[in-house]
Amino acid sequence: MKTDSAPVLTAFSQLPSMQAARHGRAPALCQDGHTLSYAQWAQQVQHMAAWLAQAWGVRAGDRVAYLGLNRIDQITLLFALARLGALLVPLNYRLARPECQAILADCKPHLLLHDAEWADAAHTLGRQGPWRVAPLAQGASASHEPPLPDEARPDSPLLLVYTSGTSGRPKGALHTQANLLANMMAAAQVQALSPQDRVLTVLPLFHVGGLCIQTLPALYAGAQVHLLPRFDAQTCLAALARERITLTLQVPATLKALSEHAHWHSTDLSPLRAVWAGSSLLPDSVIQPFHARGIPVCNVYGSTETGPFSIALPPAQAISHLGSCGWPAPGVEVRLHQVVNGVGELLLRGAALVQRYWPDQAALDDEGWFHSGDLGVQAADGSYRIAGRAKDIIISGGENIDPSELENVLLAQPSVAECAVLGWPDARWGEAVLALVVLQPGARADAAALMAQVTSRLARYKHPRRIVFVPGLPKTALGKVQKHSLLAALQNQGFSL
After folding, report:
1. For 21-35, how does the pLDDT look when each residue is reduced to its tens digit (9 = 90+)?
2. CA-to-CA distance for 393 and 396, rounded, in angstroms?
3. Which residue among 25, 48, 115, 330 has the highest number of C-beta atoms inside a 10 angstrom radius?
4. Helices (DSSP H) in 69-117: which residue ranges?
C-alpha cells in the first residue's frame, strides 16, 4: 500500500522531475518568504547538477561536504548530487573545528560548500586540506547550464553521515539511493503524508532525523515543506500558526521549549494533526501539554544507520501507548537478541539500513542485522518499548554523545588518573553529561582548567554539565568501570546536577 498520490519511483534521483510533472505549480519548498514550486525546484536541481559537474568537476563517487544551516539549497544539493552519482557529506556545525577536520580528512571531499553564516569556518577548514571551498548559493543561482543525463544507480552511495562509534571515533554511515528511497516511502506511508500537508522542518538537516524522517517523505508525497534555519521556540510557534502547519518533527528538548514558551497557549495549533518526535525515550512531561491540546505526539525509533524511520507509533495509538515507540515500519524487520526476562537488544534489518561505514567497514552482521545497542521489550500487541541502552551512548537534546570522546580528552590531562562520563537524567535535554574524575596522587583539583581543555576540543553539546572529583571508580574484575553501578550509587546518595 502506497501513500495516496505518491509517485512510483525506481530511483531516488528521479523524484524532482517526477513531482514537477505531477504537481508542477504546487509549492514544494518555502523559506523566509521565498517559495519554489515543484517545477522550479526540479529546474534548480538540474542547474545545480550542471554547475557542480562543469564548474567544479564533480563526478560519480566524489564527496561534496556542506557546512551551514537548514537551507532550500541544501536539499537541492542532495538531489543534484544524486543525479551525478556523487555523495553529500553534511557537516554538523555544532562540532569543534578539530572534529570537522577529522571528518574531512577521513572522507576527503572533492569540494566543501557553505552558506553565508559559516563562510569563515569553511575557509578555515579549507586551509587544512586539498579540498576546494565555495558558497552553495552560487549553485542555486546557476541558470545557463544544459541539463545533464542522470548518472545514478539504485546502489549509488549518496549520503555519508558521521555518527559516534563505540571506539569514540566518528564513523561515516554510507546511505545509498536505494536506502533513502526505502526509508522515504515507508515514512510517507506511516505518517499518511499527502499533497495537502504542510510540514515544518526545524531540526538540523545534517542529521538523518531532520532530513529523512519527515522532510524527504513530504517531498515524496507532494506536500509543502517549510524550513527554518534552526530551532527557536518563538519563531517556531509563529511559523506553525502563520503557515497552518499540519505536521512537524521535534525532539524532547524542543517540545519542552515550545510548551513552556509564553506564546504556547495563545498560538493557534488547530491545523496540526500530529507532532512526530525523533527520540527513543519520550518523557510523559513533554508529551502531556500537546495531548492536552488534542495533538498526538508520535514517537519514531531509529538511528543514523537504520534510515532512521524504523519503528514508529502512529497518531491513533499515541495516547494509548504512552512510552512506546510503536511497531516496525513497512519493510523493517525487528527482533530481540539475547533476551533475559523479556528484555533484549534490538536488532533491525531492511532495505533502508546502511550496509557499510566509510570506506568499507561492515555495518551489519552476516545475516544482515544491525545491532542497535539499545535494549527493548515487545508487548503482546507487537509494539516495542525501549528499556535502556546496552551501549553507553548519551543522548542529550537529540544529539548522540560518545562518552569515550570526552574521556579521552580528560585522560590526556596530566592531573587525571581515571575518569568516567555518564548521562544524567535531565528534564529538559533527556540526559546531561556528567564527568567523574579521579586525580593523580598529589594533583590539585581544578575543574575550570579541565573544562577549558574540553571546550577547546569538543563541541559545546558534548561539554559536561559538571565535573565532579571522586576518590575512585567501581570496576569489574577485568578493570572496566561499572557505569550502571556508579549511576545507581549516585542516585541513592541523592546526587543532583
Report:
1. 999 999 999 999 999
2. 10
3. 48
4. 72-84, 97-107
